[in-house]
Amino acid sequence: MLEVGKTHTRIFGNCKQGLRLLAILTLLAVVQGCAPAKHVSTPVPVHVLTEAAPFGATMTLEEMIRQTLAHQYPSPRIDFPVPDKTGRYFIELAHEPVMLQLATGAMTFQAGPQSEAGPRTDSPIAVGLAAGLDNGDIRIWSSWPCPLLTLPTETPVSLLAWDGSGPYLGAGGEISKDELHIFDLRYCAHVATVASERALSTAALSSSLTRVALVDVGRRLHVGPVDGPLEYLGTLRYPPLAVQFSPREGLLQIVDQAGWLLIWALPGLDLLDQRRIPGGPFDAAMFHDGRIALRIMEKDEGFQELFEVPSGERTVVWNIPEGRLISGGELMDSRSGAFVHPFILLEQLDLESGILSYRTKNEHWLRKLHFGSPRLEAHVAADEGLLRISDIDQVQRWYSLRDGSLLESPEPAPAELRPLPVDVDATVRWGDREYVLADPVLARDGYLLLARHVPDERFFLWWVAMEPDLSGYFHGKGLLPIRESLRRELAPQWISLPDDQAAPQLGTGSP
User: Fold this and answer.
1) pLDDT tens track for 135-193
2) C-alpha to C-alpha distances, 26 to 16, 17, 31, 38, nearest whole angstrom
3) pTM for this structure?
4) For 68-74+97-362, CATH number?
5) 324-325 and 315-319: which strand pairing?
6) Under 8 Å CB-to-CB from 369, ≥6 apart: which residues?
7) Domain coordinates in residue numbering, the chain
């Protein structure tokens, strides 16, 4: 109040000067009101930070993957420009798994296992993913209202400790590698820092943040309260892959690259069990609900002189309470033959050269560009009643001359084959019969767009010059042909590629 009073005296001097200034300000206000009104632009609305979302809107991993898929792999259009002077090309439409780029500049990532509730879908259910970036940021996709964190030191993130679902996340950086910074995802708040004597390599937080486990670069394990002191438990034989407290914090579990599983009881820190899970060495692991999944290391990644890598599945699952491997049938999807919840993320996420990627399990339509002209060759074995097509995908396929149906490759192959010309419209003639290898789907500017279907849900499309000009005749149909017979008189089925990236839908009629 004293400072305010002094300021007031300096500005206005005495009362008379104050009244004179007030009169001048009043006159200016009147003049301004009579002047023409100036245009004032409307402020651009900005996102209001709230207590529920202090760093902007949050997004679950499932939603992020769905949006990334729609952005990076939109439903492919059948139409594309006709050839020009730059050269010829053709398009392949394939229905197959795709790789999504989730983050660039990534140094490390941490994801939780999937929930076993709900249907078996391609996207994770109720699971979180955190990616540590080279600028010190930590991007988070989860149900918590915290999409972004930043290390206090603004250094590349080299360590993350999170179970993918709990509210507490630990992180370490390239600078001050001996410190683990702990954040509360409910408020995007830095709540604690735990220090180690040496640089850290792995860490874990208990669900209620009462304990922390630290493994340094010398593989020395320390455990204790978050506010210290930490107790040295021993030195691990091989680099750890996963460290986790049980949900009720009664156990501490660690598994290393060689497959050694170590279990301590809390709070006494008594070693309850140690055993080696067969099938190693491993390069990734994930705990969930009394089980642990381990991904078998590739053959060129080391340790091969110590452990034999079995053939077969890339992932093994161990039942911790029962002390046994879970059979493939207990965790396999009979439809896709892949591991189902909760360990599907173990094989879908990958970090290489700073790019965090996610490989989808379901198949999606994507469009591939091929330069040059598609090659189709036909040969006939008249005595055997066979038509051989050397296809666009460099596969030889055999068809019946009688009904045009696809056949198994004959054994042995016919000794005598006669070449047949393939017309520009992809038709072949033998005697009085005509066989159609591709059907027209669009016409424009004197060109006809042909489409050929090959097995395993793939189509090839290319433009050919045709007269007369049929522009507009096929416009807007957006359908693709699937032929059960190459015979001209037998019409194909027509399908559409839906926007939801699902399997083809059968249509009726023809373009």
Assistant:
1) 999 999 988 889 999 998 778 999 999 988 889 999 999 888 899 999 999 888 999 99
2) 16, 14, 9, 20
3) 0.71
4) 2.40.128.630
5) antiparallel
6) 89, 91, 92
7) 2-34, 68-74+97-362, 368-507
